[in-house]
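Annex B.
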Amino acid sequence: MIGQILVSLILTAALTLPASAGFQLDGRYQDADGDLIADIPTDPADQVDPVTLIFAYTPVEDPAVYVDVWKEFLDHLSEATGKSVQFFPVQSNAAQIEAMRAGRLHVAGVNTGSNPLAVACAGFRPFTMMASDDGSYGYEMEIITYPGSGIEKPEDLKGRVLAFTAETSNSGFKAPSALLKSEFGLERDTDFTPRFSGAHDNSILGVANKDYDAAAIANSVKARMIDRGLVTEDQLKTIYTSQTFPTTGFGMAYNLKPELQDKIREAFFSFDWKGTKLLEEFSKSGDTSFIPITFKDDWAVIRQIDEANGVQYSCN
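Phosphonate ABC transporter substrate-binding protein: predicted structure tokens.
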């Protein structure tokens, strides 16, 4: 059924969990105010003020595509902070999180499903995400197939190959895994064969080219790929659409100097999207501005999905 509330399908009990259920920061971080994100160190000796800010956007698609897309924003960020800013084209969610944990990444857009791990293990402090002019935001998880596959509904995935993206992805793995098990009684490796493509664009292209029978993807990525002509609508068929989820969360490393964090935050909210390549790219999926968010409230549904999947935020 289209538009049904995914969390209730996953596990009704999850809705009764407190916002912090199953979530805990790594021992290197403190959370005295209970907002579920790492506090800024109180000792100035533990705060950092890098000469160059390193920025990375989530590696949902080929990161090279976004170097030019983000240039105008990064120029604005440089002006607002008084620092040079460098785009870091990360190749995986794990590499992005590890870079921030190691102090090599300062400002980032982290994909929906990886936000809890980045917060818990890398001291990521998300504070904004993209939205439309009316404040609406997010994307839906879709399970897609190709016309003529013989798959008309989720139950038809039994005995077929379903592509996921990566285990840290909400729409590319976590949400569909929980949904297929709880609502349709389908478990990976038992009822269908999982494949991991590494990225949403890989999964979408794989289905369009009939390399995979089906795939779980973020429809915001699909919309941008159709707009670019990388795939056509008649190559794909959607058999399930979820509720709306929060999209990429943008934030910074916990140990940046407080005044620098304030300038970074201000840069996001003062950026003028009009006429920019950022608007040209992300308006394809309805995004035209940055809005404030809190990890505690806006990512509660994602942490509940993790809880239903038995996810533990272990930091190595």
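Confidence is low (pLDDT under 50) at residues 1-18. The two ends are 40 Å apart (CA to CA). Further annotation is deferred to the next reporting cycle.
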